[in-house]
Predict the 3D structure of the following.
Amino acid sequence: MKVTEHISNAKGKTLFSFEIIPPQKGQNIQKLYDNIDPLMEFKPPFIDVTTSREEYVYIKKQEGLLERKITRMRPGTVGICASLKHKYDIDPVPHVLCGGFTKEETEYVLVDCHYLGLDNVMALRGDAMKHEAYFTPQNNGNKYALDLVQQIHELNQGRYLHDIIETPYKADFCVGVAGYPEKHMEAPSMQADLRRLKEKVDAGASYVVTQMFFDNQKYFEFVKAAKAMGIDVPIIPGIKPIAVERHLSVLPQVFSLNLPDDLVNEVEKCKDNKAIRQVGIEWAIAQSKELKAAGVPVIHYYSMGKSDNIKAIAKEVF
């Protein structure tokens, strides 16, 4: 079932969803199940599964030289989606990236998703590689999320990269895209960022999931501005609980967001990460309750592979 259908069927009730990351190569998928199982009591209608782009590793040769190789440390997104659908009878949402994939490789991923009966995909540009100052697309890859949304829309119409295939068995993906309540770090202005978001919706995106934020007013202002721009699809807030002290510096730097002074002050009072984790839980509970009272369609949690703090939040909210 499509994410938009889940929202429609809920008839105004706020739904619970979360995002997981694939395990690193060599790890057992059971660890992933162990973190999903405690959250199933809150009846998530869908679970997002992230995709990692390629990265460089350096292999030491016998002569002492280093050989640079490209690898993916967390492959398996589509396979995990298939296992989640089978094990939990739930709608998985694979993330599909521009970065690190050619258009042909993207098409093959989408065909696999279609064969597996997946109804939803999240279309993202992805980040620059660690050695890049700015994002660089793969040769013959999509440059922007807009291009990726357009490719998915074309496939939904039965138009593949090199052929128009006459078939009644066309894909019909529900496409999600990202939104930024505090502006994407590369956007010159908030209005420019909203125009890019509207382009993605006009190209076929059916819903938006926001980047994490810690001040609900940022989300409410973003939704109001998006509606004024003519963006009329569901806008799902994304929430991440603070868990360790370094989040105070890492999150603003990596995601270009502001942390409220009240939250910063509470974290700085903590003597250890256990106390910080509890502050993060309590802040996210307060955020979630306010968002739920405002009637948001879904509250989406960035779990980063851990479920204990998300469960503590969900028990107080859902």
About this structure: The first strand starts at residue 15 and ends at 20. Strands lie at 15-20, 46-49, 55-60, 66-71, 91-97, 120-124, 174-179, 207-212, 235-239, 298-302. The chain has one domain: 3-317. The chain has a mean pLDDT of 93.
